[in-house]
Design brief:
single chain, globular
């Protein structure tokens, strides 16, 4: 963050803006020093956002802890929230995102997967929107639709631009190939719990009972870059397949955990797709030929990326794809607080047929970031967000922290006993790498 801001200040010509930027650098440098030297966490300076009181109340309840002696979840959230105060209190840098450059870079470096998915997405959307009768039986079509839903959600789950093994087939005509795709079977073995069939049945049942009604799916976003790209792939698919009539995206309101999506990241992604040739013309070394020049996109690749831009822009303009930030998502505590701390947001989520929570942090907050036994049911770990909440939850999470629930008895022990799993230390190291995933569903409307 400090290096990025130094670069931005060096490009400024206005003396007031430069001085303002240097003040922020001083604040960030002080924060870094306090963290490295285990100083006490200090109350947030009031920057006119209502969540300052929440952070300071929690800090007071913790007894003014030092950096090395504070709950991990609070420390992480406090770090990014305090960083945001430096910018919010500035005159010239209020909307500056010190991580924006990094987000764009990761998307550019994902070029092979972006192009592969763009081609398949165009083919899929055109097929879903055509009225050409299928030669398959209703049972075959049903099986294909179910498998396609799983494929799209699993691409969204992993969100990994370097792994093209998931991009095997995304059309009805060759969907059966998925069942024999060895790479996909290997990937599926790393999903420890997979409740996608239950989520699909829920959306399909609602589609069948309310074919003309409004049916909304919400996505609480995680990372920008390629992951946001695949989130939009999923959103476009759900709308084209008729499994939803509206998608609501929930980004963060402030730069958060380096790579989390801000509203501006959605606009930046669409702008990049509006002129993809220019985007990749100034791209990373991965996109250059042997002479060191950027490899230009083919006419077909430009056409396929332009299709995405036009399709997603139209969905956004027509209100089928909307963005709804809320300060609650960057609060200091878990999502157990949502019904009481953000009742309007909770009521809004109850209007949705399904709320998809992306990523590790959202999962940790859903489960209260507690050290549950791994066999505790997911529905129980959700607390007030569980059964009876009126909110249907689907968590798509690659494991990158200790909190994991809903596993079969003995699964944690088996994973710990594997090489690098942590069994020799007692730590749950297998849950840190992102190699393993859980897909868990709770019908809070039941």
């Amino acid at each position: 963050a400090i290096d990025d801001l130094h670069r931005a200040i060096a490009a400024c010509n206005d003396d007031d803006e430069i001085a303002d930027g240097k003040t922020i650098v001083e604040g960030l440098t002080t924060l870094k020093y306090e963290l490295q030297h285990n100083r006490p966490l200090t109350p947030l300076t009031d920057d006119a956002r209502q969540d300052v009181a929440d952070y300071n109340r929690d800090l007071n309840a913790l007894g003014s802890p030092t950096w090395f002696n504070v709950p991990w979840l609070y420390a992480e959230c406090y770090l990014y929230r305090r960083m945001s105060t430096f910018f919010a209190l500035s005159a010239h840098w209020k909307s500056y995102d010190v991580f924006a450059r990094q987000k764009l870079s990761t998307f550019i470096s994902s070029r092979p997967a972006v192009l592969e998915l763009a081609a398949k997405y165009k083919q899929l959307i055109n097929q879903l929107q055509s009225n050409v009768p299928s030669s398959k039986s209703p049972e075959e079509i049903g099986d294909a639709e179910k498998l396609l839903f799983s494929e799209m959600c699993e691409i969204c789950l992993w969100g990994n631009a370097t792994d093209l093994s998931l991009l095997t087939a995304l059309t009805y005509d060759d969907i059966q190939k998925l069942q024999g795709a060895e790479a996909r079977k290997v990937q599926e073995k790393n999903i420890l719990v997979n409740d996608l069939p239950a989520a699909y049945r829920t959306l399909k049942a609602t589609q069948n009972t309310q074919p003309k009604g409004e049916r909304r799916v919400d996505i609480v976003l995680d990372n920008a870059g390629f992951e946001l790209f695949v989130d939009l792939i999923l959103a476009g698919y759900l709308l084209a397949a008729g499994l939803a009539t509206q998608i609501v995206l929930h980004p963060k309101s402030i730069p958060w955990f380096v790579s989390d999506v801000l509203p501006a990241d959605f606009a930046s992604l669409l702008n990049a797709l509006a002129d993809p040739q220019a985007l990749y013309a100034a791209s990373s070394d991965k996109n250059k030929d042997h002479d060191g020049e950027p490899t230009p996109l083919s006419d077909r690749e430009v056409s396929e990326l332009s299709f995405l831009f036009e399709h997603w822009s139209r969905l956004h303009q027509e209100g089928q794809l909307t963005i709804r930030p809320n300060l609650f998502w960057t609060g200091p505590g878990s999502y157990w607080r949502l019904p009481s701390s953000a009742p309007d947001l909770a009521q809004d989520l109850r209007e949705s047929e399904l709320v998809i929570f992306k990523g590790d942090l959202n999962y940790r907050k859903l489960a209260g970031d507690a050290m549950w036994s791994t066999t505790v049911p997911f529905t129980h770990a959700l607390g007030p967000m569980g059964p009876g909440s009126g909110i249907r939850t689907l968590a798509l999470r690659t494991c990158k922290a200790d909190t994991v629930v809903g596993l079969p008895a003995g699964q944690d022990e088996r994973l710990k006993s594997m090489e690098g799993g942590g069994g020799d230390t007692g730590a749950r190291k297998w849950a840190w790498s992102g190699k393993w995933a859980v897909v868990q569903f709770c019908d809070g409307k039941a």
